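A quick aside before the break. I want you to see a complete sequence-to-structure record at least once, exactly as it would be stored in a machine-readable document. Don't worry about memorizing anything.
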Amino acid sequence: MKIKYHALFSKTGWMRYISHLDLLRLFSRGLRRAGFKIYLSKGFNPRPVIRVKKALKLGIESRDEEVEFLLEETISPLSFKERFNKQLPEGVKILEMKT
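That is the input. The structure line, written in C-alpha cells, reads:
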C-alpha cells in the first residue's frame, strides 16, 4: 500500500548550492533516518519514490517548493513534519504537510 504525502519545503542559506540530485539523496536519507517505511520503486534497482515538482537551478533560494513522498505507512502530517525536520540539515526545512 502506498500513501502520498505532499509537502512545501524551503531551501535557503548554504543549502542553495546543493544540486537537484543531491537534494533527492538528502530527502531519501532523511526519511530513512527518521524511521519511516519508505515505498520503493519496482524493478531491478529499487529506490525511494520522491518527486520534486520542479528542479531549482544551483545557487537559487526558495521558500515554497513542492515535493511528494510515497510511504508504506499512515502517519499524521504534523508528526511526519516534526520527525523529518529533525533529520534535515540547516537550510532545508519542511514548512507544510498534507496527505
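Two observations worth writing down. The chain has a mean pLDDT of 94. The first helix runs from residue 20 to 34. We'll return to this after the break.
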